[in-house]
Design brief:
Strand order of the largest sheet of chain B: 4-3-2-1-5
CATH superfamily of chain B: Ferrous iron transport protein A (FeoA)
Oligomer: heterodimer
CATH topology of the domain at 6-209 in chain A: Rossmann fold
Number of helices of chain A: 26
CATH class of the domain at 6-209 in chain A: Alpha Beta
CATH architecture of the domain at 6-209 in chain A: 3-Layer(aba) Sandwich
Shape of chain B: globular
CATH architecture of chain B: Roll
Largest sheet of chain B: 5 strands, antiparallel
Number of helices of chain B: 3
Distance between the termini of chain A: 76 Å
Order of helices and strands of chain B: HEHEEEHE
Strand content of chain A: 5-15%
Chain lengths: 620, 88
C-alpha cells in the first residue's frame, strides 16, 4: 500500500501555525495522542496542486530544538525522525511570523540545518505590513536557501502557492538525509545573531509604529483597570456557564430518561435490561450532562486563547499564584474548576511546565464545582436556619460561602505542601511571549471545540462508562429474593461494602445510611442527593423523596454535627469518577489519580472528623 | 567585565517607556531553564528593550518589548538583565 507523504508544520508559538493548519486541512482533521506522552497529535489530509494526497501534521510550537517541555520534545523528535509512532516527515513547512523574523528565523535556521526539504511560510504578512514593516520574500529565500511563501492563514492567502511549493519538494527525487543530532548543537546565540542579520537583510524598511496591541495592553495590563476587565470577563463567563447550560442539560437528562423508558418498554424485565437502562444509559447520560458546561467553558477559553488575552490574564494573576509556587498560567484552569474540574483539568494543557501542571491538576478538585451545589443546598437547607446575620446576608448563604473558601484554602495549603514534596523542583517561573491581539476566527474556535468534545466523549467517556457499569454491578448483585423486606441497595455487594465503610466512617460521625449513599456518589457528587433519597425512601417508597420531605427526614436521622461533618466531607472527598478518569488521561497513568484520590480522601476524613468532634464538643 | 556592567541599571529598575539596549545578562543568577528560555526569546547584548507595563499586586511580573516582541518576565529575571538606557 502506498502511504501518503508526511509533511510537518513546525514553528514558534504564536506564528499562526494552527490557523495555517486549519486553513490547509479544513475540517478533515484527526486529533490523536503521541504514545506515552500527553501531547496531542493533530493531523489532516491535504491535496497538492497536482492532486497527490499528503498527510499534514501540526507539531507543537517550539522555540528551538532544545526542548523545555514534553510538547517541544515531540517536535524535536518528529523532525529528527526519533519520535515513536511517527515517520520522519518528507518535508517541513516552517511557519514564521513575518513581524517577528528576528526571533522566528533562529528556529528556522536550526530546522534547515537538519537537511529535510523545507518551505518557509512567511505568515501574517498583512499584519507585518500594517505594522509598517516592508519585507522582501525573494531576498529572504536567497538568504535562507529555501523557498519562502508569504501567507495570511486567516484570510486563506498564499495557500495555493504553498501547496505548489510543496509539490515541488515532495517526490522530486531529492534524497532525504536522516538528520543527525550533531546539527542541533549549534550555539543558540550564534544562530540568533545570524537570524538577526538575515532578518535585517530581508527588511526593506521598518517604521517603529506604536502597535495597537500596546494600546490595548495599557488598559488590559493596567494595575486597576486590568483587574476590573479580567473580573468582568470572568463574571460573564461564569454567568454563561451556569445559565446557558441549564436548558441543554435538562434536555439531555430528559432525553436519556426517555431513552430509558423506551428500552424498558421494548425489553423484557431482567438483568440485561437493568444493565442497559440503569447501568449504561444512566451512566453515559450522567457524563453527557457535563458536556454543555464543558463546551461553553471551552468556547470562552478558546476565544480568550485565540484573541491573545489569556496570556494577559496569566500576567495579572502571576503574583498571586507565585505565592504557592505556581505560575499565572494555573489561574484559568483552577477558575474553570469552579464550574467543573473536568474541563479545568483538561485546560491545564496550556501550562508548559510539567510540575506546575501536575500540581494544578492535583488541586483542581478542591474548587467548589457545580456538582457540589445540590448536596450543599440539601444539607444546608435542612440543618442551617434561614436567619439573617446582617441585612442581605443570610446564614445559609454564609455557610455556603464558607465551604467555598475552605476549598480554596485547602487548595492553597495542598499546593504549598506538594510544591515542597511530591512536585518539588525549581519553578520554571513565568516567562512568556505576549502575542499580538487578534480577532479570533470563529471557524478555528469551533474546530477546537469539536476536538475537545471528542476527546472528552471518547476517552473520558469510555472510562466513565466502564466504571459506572462496575458500580451498577455492585449495586445490583446479588439480587434481593422475592418478597424480602430489605432493599436492593442494602442487599447488594455495595450494601455489604457499606457495612465495612460504616465501621471506618463511624468515628467521623457518619451512620451506615451515609456510608451507603457515599458508594453510588462515587459516580458524581450530586448522586449523593438521589442516593440519600433512595436510602430514606425505603420504608415508604411512595413518599416524595425530594424537597421538604427529605429535609425533615434528614433532620430526624442526622445530628447537626453529622450534617456539618458531611458537608466538610464533600469539600474534600474525590467523589467524582469523571475527574479521576480525566486525571488518568491527562497524566497518562494511574499513579497520579491514585495519589489524588488518596490524599483527598485522607483530607476529607480528617476534616470531617475534626468538624464532627469540634461540633460535639461545642454541644451543637 | 562584571564591575562596570553591575553599575548599569537592570531592566527591573528601568523606568517605563525608557528605551535601552541589553548591555549584559547575568546568566549565573538564572536557573538553567530560565537562561535558556531567555536566550530563546532573543535576549542578547545589543538588542533594544523597553519596559511597557508592570503588573499590579506588589511585585508582579513586568511586560517588556524585546526586538518586535512583547515578553512577560518575573522581576527576579528582569533584575538579571543589565541595560544601557538610550538618550531621549
Amino acid at each position: 500500500m502506498n502511504v501518503a507523504p508526511l509533511v510537518a508544520l513546525v514553528g514558534n508559538p504564536n506564528a499562526g501555525k494552527s490557523a495555517l493548519f486549519n486553513a490547509l486541512t479544513g475540517a478533515r482533521q484527526k486529533v490523536g495522542n503521541y504514545p506515552g506522552v500527553t501531547v496531542e497529535r493533530h493531523s489532516g489530509r491535504l491535496a497538492l496542486a497536482d492532486g497527490r494526497p499528503v498527510e499534514l501534521v501540526d507539531l507543537p510550537g517550539a522555540y528551538s530544538l532544545d526542548p523545555s517541555s514534553p510538547d517541544e520534545r515531540v517536535t524535536r523528535d518528529v523532525v529528527t525522525g526519533t519520535q515513536a509512532g511517527e515517520r520522519l516527515p518528507d518535508a517541513l513547512v516552517v511557519v514564521v511570523d513575518a513581524a517577528n523574523l528576528d526571533n522566528h528565523l533562529r528556529f528556522t535556521l536550526q530546522l534547515i540545518a537538519l537537511g529535510l526539504p523545507i518551505v518557509v511560510a512567511l505568515n501574517m504578512f498583512d499584519l507585518a505590513e500594517r505594522d509598517g514593516l516592508v519585507l522582501d520574500p525573494a531576498r529572504l529565500s536567497a538568504e535562507l536557501g529555501v523557498p519562502v511563501i508569504p501567507t495570511v492563514a486567516v484570510r486563506r492567502r498564499g495557500l495555493e502557492e504553498l501547496k505548489a511549493a510543496l509539490a515541488g519538494l515532495i517526490g522530486s527525487g531529492a534524497i532525504r538525509v536522516r538528520p543527525s543530532e550533531g546539527h542541533i548543537g549549534e550555539d543558540i546565540v550564534t544562530l540568533q545573531r545570524r537570524a538577526r542579520a538575515i532578518a535585517l537583510a530581508a527588511t526593506v524598511s521598518e517604521t517603529p509604529v506604536r502597535r495597537w496591541s500596546h494600546a490595548i495592553d495599557s488598559i488590559a495590563l493596567h494595575p486597576v483597570w486590568g483587574l476590573v476587565l479580567l473580573f468582568t470577563i470572568l463574571f460573564v463567563m461564569f454567568q454563561a456557564v451556569f445559565s446557558w447550560a441549564t436548558v441543554p442539560q435538562d434536555e439531555i437528562t430528559t432525553g436519556f430518561a426517555a431513552l430509558q423508558e423506551l428500552v424498558k418498554a421494548a425489553m423484557p424485565a431482567g438483568v440485561l435490561r437493568s444493565l442497559i437502562t440503569d447501568g449504561i444509559i444512566a451512566g453515559v447520560g450522567a457524563v453527557i450532562t457535563f458536556l454543555p458546561q464543558i463546551l461553553i467553558l471551552f468556547f470562552f477559553i478558546l476565544l480568550l486563547e485565540a484573541s491573545g488575552y489569556m496570556v494577559r490574564a496569566a500576567f495579572l494573576m502571576d503574583r498571586m499564584m507565585a505565592t504557592v509556587g505556581l505560575s499565572g498560567r494555573a489561574f484559568i484552569p483552577l477558575l474553570s474548576s469552579f464550574a467543573c474540574a473536568v474541563p479545568g483539568i483538561m485546560s491545564t494543557r496550556t501550562i508548559e511546565d510539567e510540575k506546575d501542571r501536575l500540581t494544578t491538576i492535583l488541586i483542581a478538585p478542591l474548587m467548589t464545582c457545580s456538582a457540589r451545589w445540590p448536596v450543599y443546598t440539601l444539607v444546608i437547607g435542612a440543618f442551617i436556619p434561614d436567619t439573617k446575620v446582617l441585612p442581605f446576608v443570610g446564614l445559609q448563604g454564609l455557610v455556603m460561602f464558607a465551604l467555598l473558601l475552605i476549598g480554596i484554602a485547602g487548595a492553597y495549603g495542598v499546593a504549598l505542601v506538594l510544591r515542597k514534596t511530591v512536585t518539588k523542583g525549581a519553578s520554571s517561573g513565568f516567562m512568556m511571549e505576549m502575542p499580538k491581539y487578534q480577532w479570533p476566527r470563529m471557524g478555528d474556535v469551533l474546530l477546537g471545540l469539536w476536538g475537545r468534545a471528542m476527546i472528552f466523549l471518547k476517552r473520558a467517556g469510555t472510562i466513565i462508562a466502564t466504571t459506572t457499569v462496575i458500580l451498577w454491578v455492585l449495586l445490583s448483585f446479588p439480587q434481593v429474593p422475592e418478597g424480602s423486606k430489605t432493599s436492593q441497595v442494602d442487599y447488594s455487594i455495595a450494601g455489604r461494602i457499606a457495612n465495612g465503610v460504616a465501621v471506618v466512617v463511624k468515628p467521623i460521625g457518619f451512620n451506615r445510611d451515609i456510608a451507603l449513599a457515599l458508594i453510588p456518589a462515587m459516580a458524581a457528587r450530586e448522586v449523593a442527593v438521589a442516593a440519600i433519597g433512595t436510602v430514606y425512601a425505603i420504608d415508604n417508597p411512595e413518599s416524595d423523596a425530594g424537597g421538604k420531605a427529605m429535609a425533615s427526614n434528614l433532620r430526624k436521622q442526622w445530628s447537626l454535627p453529622t450534617a456539618l461533618a458531611f458537608l466538610m466531607w464533600f469539600v474534600f472527598a474525590p467523589q467524582c469518577i469523571s475527574t479521576i478518569a480525566v486525571t488518568r488521561r491527562e497524566t497518562n497513568g494511574w499513579k497520579w489519580p491514585a495519589f489524588m484520590v488518596g490524599y483527598l480522601f485522607a483530607l476529607a476524613y480528617i476534616a470531617a472528623g475534626a468538624t464532627y468532634w469540634a461540633a460535639v464538643a461545642l454541644g451543637l | 567585565m562584571s564591575s562596570p556592567v553591575k553599575m548599569l541599571p537592570s531592566l527591573e529598575s528601568l523606568p517605563q517607556r525608557q528605551r535601552a539596549t541589553v548591555a549584559a545578562v547575568d546568566w549565573a543568577a538564572l536557573s538553567v531553564p530560565e537562561a535558556r528560555r531567555l536566550r530563546e526569546l532573543g535576549f542578547d547584548e545589543g538588542v533594544g528593550v523597553e519596559v511597557l507595563h508592570r503588573a499590579a499586586l506588589g511585585k508582579g511580573p513586568i511586560a517588556c518589548r524585546i526586538g518586535r516582541m512583547t515578553v512577560a518576565l518575573r522581576r527576579a529575571v528582569a533584575g538579571a538583565i543589565h541595560v544601557s538606557p538610550l538618550a531621549g
